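Tokens in:
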């Protein structure tokens, strides 16, 4: 194998790993365990000295500004598993690591690694939403952990709201356009034209299609997956937007000395 071996932990459907595979074709991304597939990070012990890098996004609900909404909707807040990320990195002993989370999450601390935190907004790297994520890049070989992230010209001065993974099928909030007129949401616009159909069912499907588009995913992504539509919305919304993931993957690739 000519490329690096990258361990992806807390993968879910692993949109971040997918972005690394697209931007780093010679790399091999190995998925670790995830509750979504019946795995448990607490019982996972990666082999030492085998991986060039470790990537992952521990559950963010404990630090999210929407955690009160999550609890109101009847969901249990996931525990802080950043210490498990730190442990897995320490056990694997890679050259570098990348942790993704919400801006309010604490930075990971791994003995023997220098690190730097980068705040990235989806819109600034080619995406369509306002979503902001924190990426902490750590290295064991040098103290310069800055990522040269490529920012692009904004393709919209009116970015769309980020996909809400825990909001179920709730419609996207109404926005006010530049002209001062109310801009109806995707779901409102289409549900209103579907007389005789199940409004809630169609609203859920419409929200999933919109979520898929906003995350930069193909139109047929998860189309035939075994998840319910609400489940698809949740796993897609929990993922890193593809434009953001690609920009980070390119920056990490350059930082590792592979142009």
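Residues out:
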């Amino acid at each position: 194998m000519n490329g690096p071996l990258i361990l992806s932990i807390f993968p879910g459907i692993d949109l971040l790993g997918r972005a690394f595979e697209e931007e780093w074709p010679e790399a091999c991304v190995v998925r670790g365990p995830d509750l979504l597939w019946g795995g448990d990070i607490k019982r996972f012990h990666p082999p030492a000295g085998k991986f060039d890098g470790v990537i992952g996004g521990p559950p963010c609900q404990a630090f999210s500004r929407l955690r009160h909404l999550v609890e109101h909707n009847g969901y249990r807040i996931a525990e802080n598993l950043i210490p498990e990320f730190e442990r897995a990195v320490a056990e694997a002993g890679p050259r570098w690591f990348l942790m993704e989370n919400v801006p309010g999450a604490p930075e990971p601390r791994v003995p023997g690694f220098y690190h730097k935190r980068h705040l990235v907004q989806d819109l600034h790297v080619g995406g369509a939403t306002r979503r902001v994520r924190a990426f902490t890049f750590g290295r064991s070989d040098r103290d310069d952990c800055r990522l040269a992230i490529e920012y692009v010209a904004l393709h919209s001065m009116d970015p769309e709201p980020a996909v809400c993974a825990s909001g179920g099928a709730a419609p996207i909030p109404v926005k006010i356009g530049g002209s001062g007129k109310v801009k109806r949401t995707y779901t409102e616009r289409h549900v209103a034209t579907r007389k005789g159909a199940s409004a809630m069912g169609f609203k859920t499907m419409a929200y999933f299609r919109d979520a898929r588009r906003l995350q930069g995913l193909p139109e047929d992504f998860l189309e035939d997956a075994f998840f319910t539509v609400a489940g698809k919305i949740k796993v897609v919304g929990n993922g890193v937007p593809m434009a953001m993931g690609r920009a980070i993957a390119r920056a990490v690739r350059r930082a590792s000395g592979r142009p």
